[in-house]
Amino acid sequence: MDFNALFSQKNTVDRLSEKDIQQTHGYIELVKAFSRITYQSIYLIDYQAKSFEFVSDNPLFLAGLTAKEVMEMGYGFYQKYVPSDDFQMLIKINEAGFSFYEKIPIEERKLYVISYDFQIQNAHNKFILINHKLTPVFLTEEGKIWKAICIVSLSTNISSGNVTIEKLHSNLVWELDLLTGKWNSQKKINLTEREIEILRFYHRGLTIHETSEKIFVSIDTVKFHRRKLFEKLGVSNMNEALVFALNNRLL
User: Where are the domains of the chain?
Assistant: First the structure.
C-alpha cells in the first residue's frame, strides 16, 4: 500500500501564489492554542507537502507514539497503524470526497465538513474505531484544498465507514454509498426541545429522577423521551447519545 494513494489527483497542489502563502501567517499558533485549551485530538494536513503540519498531544490518534513521531512519519503513519481494509476504504473516501468538492462553488468550499469512521491501532496494539472530521482551512486561488484541519474522536458507531458531508447552516447531510461511490442527500437529524433538555441534564450528571423534577414530568415520561432519542440517533444508552449529539453538533 502506498500512502500517496491517499492524495487525489483531483486536488493536486503543485504551485502556490504569493497570495496563497500570505493567508497562512500565524495560523498554526492559533491551532496549537486551541488544542491546549480543549485537549482535543487535532492535526493539520498540508496537501502540497503531503505531510502533517501539526499534531496535538492528545493520545487518541497517536497509537502510542509522541506527536513529534507521528508528524515525522507523516502519511506513512496510516500505512502502519490502519488495517488494510480500512486503508483501502480511506482511498475511496478521498476520491469521492474530492469529487464532491469539485462540484461546489469555490467560495463555499470552506463551509463543508466531511466525517467518517475507521480503525486505528492504539498503544496496546488493539484496534479502536475513531471518528475523523476534516474541513478546509486554506484554499489555493484555483480552489484546491491546500491545508485542512482534522479532529479525531471515539466513534459511536460499530463499524468503519459512515461517511457524511455537511454544510454549515444547511439542513441537509450527504451520505456516501461506499459500494457505488454515490452521494445521497437527506435531512439532518433534529432533536426536540425536550430531547435537548434531557441530554443537557444528563451531561450535568442528573439522574432520571432529578431530571423529571427539573422539567416537571413523570419518571416514565423521561424514560419515554430517552427511548425516542435512542431510536432517532441509533444508539443504545445515554452515554452514546451524548457523544453522538456533541460530535454532530446537535446540542
Answer: 3-187, 193-247
Which regions of the chain does DSSP assign to beta strands (E)?
41-46, 51-55, 112-121, 127-139, 145-154, 161-167, 172-177, 182-187
Distances (CA, A) of 213 to 75, 93, 193: 52, 46, 17
φ and ψ of 63, to 5 deg? 55, 35
Q: Which CATH class is domain 3-187?
A: alpha beta
The domain made up of 193-247 has a fold known as Arc Repressor Mutant, subunit A (1.10.10)
The predicted-structure confidence for 116-132, as pLDDT tens digits, reads as follows: 999 999 988 899 999 99
